Automatic annotation (TrEMBL):
Statement: the UniProt record of this protein carries the keyword Mitochondrion: no
Any one Gene Ontology molecular-function term assigned to this protein's record: DNA-directed DNA polymerase activity
Region of interest: Disordered: 1-21, 582-618
Main location: nucleus
The UniProt record lists the keyword Metal-binding: yes
PROSITE patterns associated with the record: UMUC, ZF_UBZ3
Protein name: DNA polymerase eta
GO cellular component: nucleus; replication fork; site of double-strand break
Length: 618
């Protein structure tokens, strides 16, 4: 029988959207869910029952070290040279922050455990924890964290229902699209929804009967609808709330699973899209998950300082603040789309949408093939002669060999196509040069083999007769792909010995950037799609493209992209270290969504007035 809804839901049920009680600036907080919506298979990012989670590990590098050392509760920081890069929660209680130097931190907490990240040292195959590592001779290794990250991602996939889409978002976080599994569970739990009742007035287009009242106990922190009221009256649940609560159960389970197996505690945000999931993941940290119901979106976003939103933290945010004399999201909601687009370009539609809690970015697992792997180092003392380069090449070769061999543990037939060496010579006119060579099929990719090939590239690259002041070196494998064994027996490859690099090794023109601050950083293996001549930075969403070329080969394209990527990474490191937030969001202000992915109405290709100028250097 068709159940007649109670009066509070009736307008939603019979008249479509209950606009009168909805915030005018916020759309679709309580969309009508019909049987047709429920049964639809492919509503994608516009599914009104969409549920997305973002799960982030608490004080990740610090947690890795705590577990490695078996000291779960002690205040601990992770050091990279003299800067703190991770502070665990017990240490945060003493007021220690990432921006501090280690001496100040020790003053605040004399019993603080200080761990320097592992480093590569020339002559060692693997990174280690040495006494007094020195940036003049060592190179930071984040391999252990990467390994742990891979394990964690695997557990998300294993611990969540099969139909969940999982996308790695950074070294310690992942997005999950739980729309499909929650839909399935919802239909199992409320089997009466599986069929349109005979007396349903509009057939498939009849709105669903009112949902049960959700009990949020044990499911996490529910963001209040009105933040000014501490004890809220229970507001009626929607079917989207039911979906959120099912997602929250799944997340609670998988987070406990990760804690039990690997020991890491995590914090999650669960909401209707990626942007909101990421934003509310830090609502209560650590060891918590926060649920942002649609009804709570306006109350959550409106009082927020808008510059806390990703990309609105930097130059663009400042510009918005001064243009309109605004500081909160609510202030900015007054600005019409036309007005914003006339001042900030057509593409500012994404700002307009994000301020209203709208984000249609997909959760999509990134391709794991056709990657590049990069090891790079900004040199503390410039290399001024050919002979001084070999030391660093060996250090970079060690990292690259280890990375490839580790990746082969999960994908055994992984082979790189090309080895690329790049150097930044501030004394040369073409300050960034690179050489590359096809990577031969050698049986074992050892440090020696990589270093020997890289040494040859180094001799081609470094001109002993020209002025040399090399301040940065990068060594990369590009086109790393799983080789199909069936195509050609691997044994025939093994018989091929290491050949000298091809004479085709070539130089690439890449963007020149200013020398940046010394740092080794998280350099993740990124995906570069096969055909693309651009890549999108996972940190800031900026798209970087190669100049068009009709003659570029596939290997050249990949090498050139890897180099641009490295430059761009350096740019982030420089920003973070100098704490300049003018050109890109500062790390604290990052929240999930890359604006380039936003669907844009009236999109134009080039906009001189465009938003791009707020994300360019200078
Ligand atoms: N990280 C880094 N440099 C940065 C930002 C992050 O080295 N500029 C490293 C940190 O050491 C950290 C990991 O990347 O452990 C994940 O970063 P993030 O999630 O931002 O911070 P956490 O340390 O995990 O702390 P939180 O609990 O606040 O997430
Ligand atoms: Ca984290
Ligand atoms: Ca993180």
């Amino acid at each position: 029988m068709f159940v007649k809804p109670p009066s509070h839901t009736r307008p939603t049920l019979w008249k479509g959207k209950e606009k009168a009680t909805e915030e005018p600036e916020f759309e679709d907080l309580n969309p009508t869910i019909t049987y047709r919506t429920l049964f639809a298979q492919n509503l994608g990012v516009r599914d009104p029952l969409r549920v997305i989670a973002l799960c982030d590990s608490d004080a990740f590098y610090a947690a890795c070290e705590m577990i490695r050392l078996g000291i779960p509760d002690k205040p601990l920081v992770v050091l990279q040279w003299s800067s703190l890069i991770a502070v665990n929660y017990p240490a945060r209680k003493f007021g220690i922050t990432r921006m501090m130097n280690v001496q100040d931190a020790l003053q605040l907490c004399p019993e603080l455990v200080v761990v320097h990240v592992a480093t590569y040292k020339e002559g060692e195959k693997e990174p280690g924890y040495w006494d007094n590592p020195d940036t003049k001779t060592h190179k930071v290794s984040l391999d252990m964290y990467r390994r742990e990250s891979v394990k964690m991602l695997q557990l998300y996939k294993e611990g969540l229902p099969e139909t969940t889409e999982v996308e790695k978002a950074s070294i310690d976080e992942a997005f999950m699209d739980l729309t499909r599994p929650t839909r399935q569970i919802l239909l199992e739990r409320y089997p009466y929804l599986a069929q349109v009742p005979d007396d349903a007035p509009l057939g498939l287009d009849t709105p669903l009967p009112p949902p049960p009242q959700v009990s949020w106990d044990g499911l996490g922190t529910v963001v209040p609808i009105d933040p000014s009221i501490t004890e809220e009256l229970e507001s009626p649940s929607t079917w989207h709330d039911v979906a959120l609560s099912i997602a929250a159960e799944c997340m609670e389970k998988v987070r406990q699973h990760i804690k039990a197996i690997l020991g890491y505690t995590t914090s999650a945000g669960i909401a209707r899209n990626k942007f909101l999931a990421k934003l509310c993941a830090s609502y209560r940290k650590p060891m918590n998950q926060s649920i942002l119901r649609n009804a709570a979106i306006p109350g959550y976003l409106k009082p927020m300082a808008f510059q806390k939103i990703r990309f609105l933290g930097g130059k663009l945010g400042k510009s918005l603040a001064s243009e309109y004399d605004v500081s909160t999201v609510a202030d900015l909601l007054r600005i019409s789309l036309d007005e914003m687009q006339s001042k900030f370009g057509e593409e500012s539609i994404w700002i307009y949408e994000v301020l209203r809690g709208i984000d249609h970015t997909e959760v999509k697992e990134k391709q794991t093939v056709n990657k590049s792997m990069l090891a790079s180092k900004n040199l503390p003392q410039p290399v001024t002669q050919l002979s001084e380069g070999y030391h660093w090449i060996r250090v970079l070769a060690a990292e690259l060999a280890l990375r490839l061999n580790e990746a082969r543990e999960t994908t055994p037939n992984l082979w790189p196509k090309t080895l690329v060496l790049s150097a930044r010579n501030v004394k040369a006119l073409d300050s960034r040069r690179s050489k590359q060579a096809p990577w031969p099929f050698v049986k074992e990719v050892t440090v020696d083999v990589v270093a020997a090939a890289a040494d040859k590239l180094w001799r081609e690259l470094a001109d002993p007769h020209a002025p040399m002041k090399i301040i940065g070196l990068g060594l990369a494998f590009t086109g790393v792909e799983g080789v199909e064994v069936g195509l050609k027996s691997i044994d025939t490859f093994f018989n091929t010995s290491l050949k000298p690099p091809s004479k085709r090794a070539l130089e690439e023109d890449v963007l020149n950037t200013e020398p940046e601050v010394e740092a080794a950083t998280e350099r993740t293996t990124r995906n570069i799609s096969k055909e693309s001549s651009s890549f999108v930075c996972s940190r800031c969403g900026q798209k970087l493209s190669l100049p068009p070329s009709a003659t570029r080969t596939e290997a050249e394209r990949q090498a050139a992209l890897a180099l641009i990527q490295m430059e761009h990474d350096d740019f982030h490191v420089a920003l973070e270290l100098s704490k300049v937030s003018d050109n890109a969001p500062s790390r604290q202000t990052m929240i999930g969504v890359a604006p380039k992915d936003k669907p844009r109405k009236k999109r134009r290709k080039e906009s001189p007035q465009g938003i791009a100028k707020f994300f360019t250097k200078g």
